[in-house]
Specification:
The chain is built from five helices and no strands. By secondary structure, the chain is mostly helical. The protein has two domains: 1-68; 81-170, no CATH class.
């Protein structure tokens, strides 16, 4: 009986590792191949889906850019479309008048003296957007409108502001 436990222990210590190595030699290549097939299959599916998504996106982009009408001009907050249209008309009138003067051989004087922004009748003028300036212009008198116009012409040259000033001065 003493021989049996020794033999069992020898089998466990010697033959089990040898059997494991022999089994792993056959099993590991099969496991690697199975894993490779799964990963490559998923990669192939992901590639096909990605290509389909890119084609669909390109087609949507093509139809949106070719068939879509141009975006309408945006209206600044606080102004109606009518005010913006009037401002644009006034701006084009100013531009046309300057072009006519230049074409007639007169010099357009762009070297006007600069007005100090602190002296302008609108507080924090330089930090305001054109739509904010336009909203404040109707409250100004002729002299103040001239000051703002002179500052705009020598500095920022915003057509919306200059057009509104021209419109107010003609009214």
């Amino acid at each position: 009986m003493g021989r049996r436990p020794f033999r069992t222990l020898a089998e466990l210590a010697v033959f089990v590792p040898i059997g494991l190595v022999a089994e792993l030699r056959e099993t590991i290549p099969r496991l690697m191949e199975s894993g490779r097939e799964r990963v490559e299959g998923r990669i192939a599916v992901a590639r096909v889906i990605g290509e389909m998504a890119v084609k669909a996106g390109a087609e949507q982009l093509r139809t949106r850019t070719v068939d879509a009408p141009p975006d309408p001009p945006s209206v600044p907050q606080g102004l109606s479309a009518d005010v913006m249209a009037t401002d644009l008309e006034a701006s084009s009138t100013v531009v046309e008048a300057r072009a006519t003067e230049t074409a007639a051989g007169e010099q357009v004087d762009d070297s006007e003296e600069s007005v100090d922004p602190e002296a302008l009748p609108i507080a924090d003028y330089e930090s305001l957007a054109a739509s904010q300036v336009v909203a404040r212009l109707p409250a100004l008198n002729t002299v103040e409108l001239d000051q703002v116009a002179q500052f705009e012409q020598t500095n920022r040259r915003r057509r919306t502001v200059l057009g509104k000033i021209d419109q107010l001065q003609r009214a």
